[in-house]
Each structure stands twice: as C-alpha cells, then as structure tokens.
C-alpha cells in the first residue's frame, strides 16, 4: 500500500476517534484533502483509495489538475485568496469556495456562475485571531455579510471557514473554534451546516468544537515544495 493510502487511512481513523471523543455522530466530519503543489498523480492515488473531495489554493495549478483528472468524479473546493480577475474561472470550475471575505467577490461569483450549474456552495472566511497577515472578516461584520450574500441568486451560503493562530495547548486550540461556532449558531439568520476548520495540528480540538470539514494537506501528501 502506498504512503498516501496509508496516511489516508490513518487520518480517517484519527477523525473517527475525535468524533467519538466529542460525542459526535460517526461520519459527521469530512476530510478535505488539500492537494496544492502536489501532482495530479498523488490526487489520483488518494482518489483510488476512496477520497473524493480535494482543495486547491492556486487557480492555474488547479485548472491544470482538473483537466488531467477529468475522468475522476472529484468535488473540487477552492480555499485560497480570491482576486477579482480570478472569480469567473473559480465560479466555473469549482463546487465549493471557502475563502469568500467580501461582498464584491461574492457578487462576482454569483454573476459569473454558469447557468447550467447548481448554485456555488460558499463559506465566509473569518479572521478569528485578528491576524494582519490573514484574510477574512471579523465576527462583528459577519451578520451583515450573511444578510447580503444570501440575497445573491447563484450562491448557496453553507457556512464559515477559519484558520486561527497556531497553538499547541488543547484548550487554547478549542477556544477560537468554540467562539466561532457559538456565535454563528446564535445568529439564526440562515441555515448553516458547514464549519470548515481544523488541520492536522488541531484536528481533535476542531472536531470537539463543531467542525464539519477538516482540511489536511501535508499529513496526507507529504511536505509541500514551493519551488
């Protein structure tokens, strides 16, 4: 069995154990395989081992892989920063976008979503740790952006995405996720079913605090090379 297949089985086991520890239903958390900088062959290996949802951050790289893997029934998620000149291609070639953080981008995605495709699933990116280097909105801005985005016809608001500051203490890992989850649940503005947070280093804490999608890259495909 290849390394990728072995790692995939191990990560899925970790997710199941974390679900059990959190009192969550088995299968309530999905694994999103983050395949940026990795070749199409690695994605094919993970696909053949049962993985079906993959995430990319770099548009041109993603489009090349999508073409190479067009025979596979892959659900593609976009998780990178979004520039205005990239919205048409993202709206056309992805089923999910996790990194919407302003109304201008949301409007463009809605307007440019092809008519023959279903509404584009989106998550609003929250800068939960208020880091200058990261994209995302504050929790204070969230209610207004939800109100605006839900009026756009070709978008389906599914939930929120966040990447907090790294922390090795379990309780400190839980804290921002708990705040985000409880804040969103208290809004009661729209039916939210997706909480996209948690990576390999804080997977257990994220699942404890309500994550429904964990994003795993290097732990599955190996360390990335940005050459």
Secondary structure: elements and pairs:
Elements: H1 3-21, E1 30-34, H2 40-48, E2 53-56, H3 59-68, E3 75-78, H4 87-93, E4 96-100, H5 103-112, E5 120-126, H6 142-149, E6 155-162, H7 170-187, E7 194-196, H8 203-208, E8 213-216, H9 218-221
Parallel strand pairs: 1-2, 1-8, 2-3, 3-4, 4-5, 5-6, 6-7
Helix pairs in contact: 4-5
Percent of residues in β-strands: 15-25%
Structural class: alpha/beta
How many strand elements?
8
Could you tell me the mean pLDDT? 95
Strand order of the largest sheet: 7-6-5-4-3-2-1-8
Q: From the coordinates shown, what is the CATH architecture?
A: Alpha-Beta Barrel
Q: What count of domains describes the coordinates?
A: 1
Total helices: the number is: 9
Through-space gap between termini: 28 Å
Low-confidence stretches: none
Question: Fraction of residues in helices?
Answer: 40-55%
The biggest sheet, with number of strands, parallel, antiparallel or mixed sense and barrel status, is:
8 strands, parallel
* Fourth-level CATH superfamily: Alanine racemase
Order of helices and strands: HEHEHEHEHEHEHEHEH
CATH topology descriptor: TIM Barrel
Question: Cα-atom Rg, whole angstroms?
Answer: 17 Å
Structural features, described:
This protein has 227 residues and is of the alpha/beta class. It has a single domain (3-221), classed as TIM Barrel (Alpha-Beta Barrel), CATH 3.20.20.10. Helices cover 40% and strands 18% of the residues. The chain has nine helices and eight strands. It has helices spanning 3-21, 40-48, 59-68, 87-93, 103-112, 142-149, 170-187, 203-208, 218-221; strands at residues 30-34, 53-56, 75-78, 96-100, 120-126, 155-162, 194-196, 213-216. Strands 7-6-5-4-3-2-1-8 form an eight-stranded parallel beta sheet. The longest helix is centred in the first third of the chain and has 19 residues, at 3-21. 37% of the residues are buried. The mean pLDDT is 95.
